[in-house]
Amino acid sequence: MSRLQALRELPDRELLSIHCAGDPDAFGELFRRHRDRMWALALRITHDPEIAADAVQEAFIAAFRGSGSFRGEAAVTTWLHRIVVNSSLDRLRQIKPVAQLPDADLRVLADPADHHRSVDTRIDVRAALDQLPEGQRMALVLVDMHGLSIAEAARVLSIAEGTVKSRCSRGRAAMVPLLGLSTSSDKAVIPPRKEPMASP
After folding, report:
1. Do 101 and 168 meet the contact criterion of CB atoms below 8 Å apart?
2. Residue 75 maps to a domain
């Protein structure tokens, strides 16, 4: 087995550990292993492939340089998610000010399978997400689209777990009228009155 093949057998934490110890190839394996998922996350935040690519590049550079700050309190992927989220939001702020789904699942955006059936839903959900406050949108992207647990999302966003739950709940509720959905009782959802949205 070659050295690079051996690195591919190692868990994330060990790769990061030997990277910090000076291994020249360990971080490259982490990048290879997680770059596509991190790019998908950045793309869902920025909605622009070029901005997403820049954000991911900056995020992995920051992770490479700041790997010594990883304390092992969360998974390496959670740590990377946090860095990518921050990098993506920083990129958006440089360009412009950063301005319950009843049994529905935002993972339709994360799963490209059955493209023809889901493409309209993808467009509608993306447009609805764009209308949410940043805090609610980020919570839904991480929990409903990327499948992170409430605890993991809380660590990524550096907020309390209860805040993540609240933002997800409020975001899902806000998306019901935006998507023209019905409640479980099949009654039409009455859109809320237009009021300024408070910061989540």
Report:
1. no
2. yes
